[in-house]
Every structure is written in structure tokens, then in C-alpha cells.
Design a protein that fits this description.
two-stranded antiparallel ribbon, 14 helices, 2 strands, globular
Length: 333
């Protein structure tokens, strides 16, 4: 486990160093983010798309970080956090391969005609919220009293009242939902998608190669999402709690992050549909790397979902679990 953590840390350091180098070297950033209109060899296209995928995976992105964070935290182990990052990226990679094929045959021009951020945010938000409700409502450790709204007479079972919330052993957070999230979230269209789908994909030799730019972009994203998934999960594991306590904190945080984060996505998406100018608002940072070049709606979503809802809930739940543990020790003594 120690070797794994050292390896993950090394990958993050190298990726961060690459981001810094690209930010400072204008010639490198220009060749990556402005490939031009001339012909390119297939190998060069795939190398560039893979590098862009790595950059996409490590830079804060509203379509990747909130979802990977949620499932990784809910996994309560470094290896399962990596699995969460892999699952999300697998769905994302499949979608990107489809999208670059559409880019090659010219159908992706619809993204140039219409701003689809609003609809994508709404759909992603709904899927996130449904997943969050599933995690929160279907687990033994927590039961939200929705039944009382429909005049239900029986709320808690005798077993549920006897078992402390953080001592139960609920089923795992369903990682397969992360695959669905990856596929849905992939339809979001930012600066990286513009480069890969509208500029690089049409340069491949024929239709049979059209899925490859999307595939390599997805694989580059996958590398960093696996690493970040492990990092997020390791954050919860390093809290010093018992395994059952970590399960409680991880799953409840995952459920709340997906549920409330999904509502935030849906609300922002609806506002963009009603007032498209909102999506255009951004404060430039002067950095040429997409996702770091400005602070806008996407940045706000990452900060709210991961920073406020996600990390905020982890800290609150850890404090709650420790307080209950101390109270139980006092009661037994």
C-alpha cells in the first residue's frame, strides 16, 4: 500500500509539473491547443489527444471531479477509489470515441450552432441526484423519512433503532452508476472537446480511425481520474476511523454529494437554458491551459460540489462519528 501511495504521489507530481511547464512555455501550449488546419500524422494526433486527456483529467473540471470524488469517497479504500476513477472514465471514454466519430463525419457541428451546456448540466444533475437518493435511501445505515410524507405509519424497524448508524454494514456504493455518469457527462463540450472533436478528429485518414482520438483522449483522462480517485479515497481512509466508521462517512458523503451536487448541476443548467449569458461569464486567469484559463460557472460548480458539499460533509461526519464514539465509551464506563 505504501508503494502504491508513493507511485500515485509521483504521478500527480509529474502531471502537475507538466501542467506548469505547458503554462510557462507558449510554444508548447500553442502547438497543443491550436493544432492548426494542416494535415497531421495519425500517431501525432493520438499522442496529442492522450496528452490533452491527461491535462483534462488533472485540471478541475465540472464533468469529472465532482462525480469521481463522490464515488471514490464512497469506496472507503485507495484501490476501490482507483476503481471508481476507472469506472467513470470507462463510460467517458466510450462516449468520446462516439463523439470524435461524429466529429469526423461532420455531425458535431451542432455543438458550434447550439450551446448544450445547459441541457447536459440538467441531465447530469438529475442522474447525480437519483444516484444520491438511491445511496441515501437504500442503505441500512440511513433512512430518510420520505414515507411519512405519504402518511406512512411505520417509520423505523425494531432492528434499525437498535443498530447505531455507523456500526451497520451496508452494501457497497454501486460503482456501475459511475460508468453511466461518465457516459452522460461526456456530452459536455468544453475547450478540450473543441480541440479533439472539431479540429483533431477530422484530420484522421478515414472513418475507421475516427474513434481513436476520442479513445486516446479518454484513456489520458482515465489515467488521471484513477490517480485522483485513489487520492480522494485515501483522504477518507487517512482519517483514522474504523472500517465501519469509514464506510458510514464515505457512503453518506457520497450520497449527499451526488444528491445535493446533482441539484446544483440541475439548477445551474436550468439557469443557463433561461439566461445563456451566464455560461459566457468568466474571469480570465492568463493561463493558456483549458480549465485553468478562467474562473466561471464550471469552476463554481467544482468548488461547490467538491469543496463545500463534499469535503464539508466529510469533516462534519468525521466529527459526528468521533463524538458518538466518545459518548458510547463514556456510557460503557
Amino acid at each position: 500500500m505504501r508503494l502504491l501511495n508513493v507511485t500515485l504521489a509521483a504521478v500527480i507530481i509529474l502531471a502537475a509539473a507538466a501542467v506548469l511547464y505547458i503554462s510557462l512555455d507558449s510554444s508548447v501550449s500553442s502547438s497543443l491547443f491550436n493544432p492548426g488546419t494542416g494535415q497531421m500524422a495519425l500517431g501525432a494526433i493520438l499522442v496529442i489527444t492522450f496528452i490533452l486527456g491527461i491535462l483534462h483529467g488533472i485540471t478541475p473540471d465540472e464533468h469529472t471531479w465532482p462525480i469521481t470524488f463522490s464515488y471514490a469517497i464512497g469506496s472507503y479504500s485507495t484501490r476501490k477509489g482507483m476503481k471508481a476513477g476507472f469506472a467513470f472514465s470507462a463510460g467517458f471514454t466510450m462516449q468520446r470515441a462516439i463523439l470524435t466519430t461524429l466529429g469526423f463525419i461532420g455531425l458535431a457541428v451542432i455543438y458550434q450552432q447550439f450551446n448544450l451546456d445547459g441541457p447536459v448540466y440538467v441531465i447530469v444533475g438529475i442522474v447525480m441526484a437519483i444516484s444520491g437518493m438511491y445511496i441515501l435511501n437504500k442503505r441500512q445505515y440511513l433512512h430518510i423519512p420520505l414515507d411519512l410524507l405519504f402518511k406512512g405509519k411505520i417509520h423505523h424497524t425494531e432492528h434499525a433503532e437498535r443498530v447505531p448508524m455507523h456500526e451497520s454494514d451496508p452494501k457497497p456504493v454501486p460503482i456501475k452508476l459511475a460508468v453511466l455518469h461518465g457516459f452522460v457527462a461526456g456530452w459536455g463540450f468544453g475547450a478540450y472537446s473543441t480541440i479533439v472533436v472539431l479540429i483533431l478528429a477530422p484530420k484522421v485518414p478515414s472513418l475507421i480511425y475516427a474513434p481513436l482520438p476520442g479513445l486516446f483522449f479518454g484513456l489520458g483522462t482515465m489515467v488521471m481520474q484513477i490517480v485522483l480517485g485513489a487520492l480522494f479515497a485515501n483522504f477518507a481512509v487517512s482519517s483514522g476511523l474504523s472500517e465501519n466508521q469509514m464506510k458510514f462517512v464515505g457512503r453518506k458523503t457520497a450520497g449527499r454529494t451526488l444528491y445535493y451536487g446533482g441539484m446544483a448541476f440541475a439548477i445551474i443548467g436550468a439557469l443557463i437554458l433561461l439566461f445563456p449569458v451566464i455560461d459566457q461569464f468568466a474571469v480570465s486567469t492568463g493561463n493558456p491551459i483549458p480549465n485553468l484559463d478562467s474562473v466561471g460557472v464550471a469552476t463554481v460548480l467544482v468548488l461547490v460540489v467538491v469543496g463545500v458539499i463534499g469535503i464539508g460533509n466529510i469533516l462534519l461526519l468525521i466529527r459526528e462519528v468521533r463524538r458518538k464514539g466518545r459518548n458510547q465509551i463514556r456510557a460503557k464506563s
